[in-house]
Amino acid sequence: MREIIGQYNDLLESDMPPKEKIKNYFLLHFQLFEEKLPLISMFMKEQMHPINEQILQRLNYYRDLSDKTTLALLTEVYGKRIAPFQYDILISLKGIMHGYSEFILFHRQPYDFVQLSSTLIEKVDILVEHSKNTFLTEQLWNSKPHCMQEYSVTALEVQEEVNRWIETYKGHPIIEDTLSLIEAELKLSNPRPALLNGMMANLKQYENLQWLALLLKQYIVHLS
Questions:
Q1: How many domains does the chain have?
Q2: Domain ranges, residue 136
Q3: Which end of the chain is flanked by fewer CB atoms within 10 Å, N or C?
Q4: pTM for the full model?
Q5: Considering the domain boundaries, does residue 150 fall inside one?
């Protein structure tokens, strides 16, 4: 899951035109869905068993990150005109994507995901063009789900991700020092957001460190 969110975040911050960006977002979603299908099937079977609270909080956290990425892309493509009904558009889009994903799951054959991405853009264009009424307000959207506590990225989670890459980047002129500085900062009683932001900027230059950069970004948010 962390690699997937990292790829979404990388796409969001890319320099490609907004319309092309959202098309690639849809394409990435279904390519990853196809790639991770065995794991998804296994997860669905596991739903027969109770999920502990920590896993539930993590899933809620990943869903929230995914929603924020999608909203940011929609705003980048369609601008301020979707502001009054952006959450309704998001929910509608999630429903459409879920419907296609479910169809693909139960009707196994090769699919043209480029065509599917273009189809989704057409559907969103129609929704944006003709939407007039709204149901989901910002207050409703930001209300916390029942029996869900807010999930915050901890220093330990950042440290664990740092540990994954220490050996890989040993001797690297930039990243070795970056990881060491992050490690040292995490041990302080009051880590410095400005320094961590600088380290995050270094990490974002490397594709396989996008998840660590995103974790660090979320951790910094909760420092302020």
A1: 2
A2: 2-142
A3: C
A4: 0.58
A5: no
